[in-house]
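User: Hi! I'm working on a homework problem where we have to compare a predicted structure to a textbook description. Could you give me the structure for the chain below?
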Amino acid sequence: MSKIIIALDGFSSCGKSTTAKRVAAKLHYAFIDTGAMYRAVALYFHRHEVDVVDPAAVEYALQHIEITFEFNVGRQASDTILNGENVEQEIRKMFISDIVSQVAAIPAVRHAMVAQQQKMGYKKGIVMDGRDIGTVVFPQAELKIFMTAQPNIRAQRRKLELLQKGEDLPLEEIVENLRMRDEIDSNRTEGPLKRADDAIDLDTSFRSMDEQVNFVLDHVRRVQSGKK
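Assistant: Happy to help. Predicted structure tokens:
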């Protein structure tokens, strides 16, 4: 079967990254975690006290950011590498969640990351998840999935994810964080969260992870057989 580009877009805590990783593994495709790339930029900005409203400071910082992915045999997943440092655990913390949408909304940041992402897709055979993959990064993607879930379920999933990382936060704080991120992601001028016209909807509220993965794989087979 010919290799294709699979774009998974949607709201945070809908299962995009986990679904994308498992689909990529099933197909032996490369998985590109675009959310991790923006989180890594946010971490760099935080560490170096980059003023996000100073275009010159942002541009200068971006010239010193290199993001790659390295397969972790123990996790059977890719770790995010920022300038040679494994930052996979650090970028998943709540303080990064609190600032990542603001950083990702900066046009210069999006231009820099989109350029890196598009280079990764030249050979196809990739699964990429994010907010604007099917609309901005790969509008030519052969398969576009738009993922949603009910807000309370998303918050509960996020709370469980944080607990597994040792962070115990009130559910109300998580709900507010998700609401804020949705608002910023949907209303930014550069690459806003938006459903592509030719995307296929996937509501994950009451689907198991296996069901989500199989849903995507079924549509991959349809595309490859010309029955989309």
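For your comparison, note the following. The chain has a mean pLDDT of 92. Strands lie at 5-10, 30-33, 67-72, 77-82, 85-86, 126-130, 143-148, 200-203. Good luck with the assignment!
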